[in-house]
Design a protein that fits this description.
Blueprint lengths: L8 E6 L4 E6 L4 E5 L8 E3 L6 E6 L6 E6 L4 E5 L6 E5 L6 E7 L2 E9 L4 E2 L1
Antiparallel strand pairs: 1-2, 2-3, 3-4, 5-6, 6-7, 7-8, 9-10, 10-11
Length: 119
């Protein structure tokens, strides 16, 4: 059983058979080792509000997106010491969904409570 005691888990995705990521209401993103789930491998506080949604790039499980109530979308790479590779802005309200375009790590869409879809 994986437990995150710092905030309610609002979203999660499998990166591989071994790793899982979670986003929380306390603005954290955690990387979990499924073979030793008692404690997260890393915790990142790169968002300033709830992490609401995430998507994993299908061609490389090390890369994923997060969308947040802080109005930003971030691209992450867990292999890097500074895992956030880029931050995107443009929405006027909480981001509720993010999705990579299949096969294109540089292209994604994000949807928001402001009734907009940005790609």
């Amino acid at each position: 059983c994986i437990r995150d005691s710092t905030g309610a888990i609002t979203c999660c995705k499998f990166l591989s058979q071994t790793y899982c990521i979670s986003g929380s209401s306390d603005s954290t993103v955690c990387l979990w080792d499924l073979e030793n789930p008692q404690r997260y491998l890393s915790m990142h506080m790169e968002h300033s509000s709830d992490v609401v949604c995430m998507d994993v790039f299908e061609d490389d499980g090390n890369i994923f997106l997060t969308g947040s109530a802080d109005l930003t979308t971030k691209i992450w790479d867990i292999r890097c010491k500074q895992p956030v590779q880029k931050t995107f802005t443009g929405h006027e309200s909480s981001i509720n969904t993010v999705k990579f375009l299949p096969g294109r790590v540089t292209c994604f869409a994000s949807g928001s409570e402001d009734l907009s879809l940005i790609h």
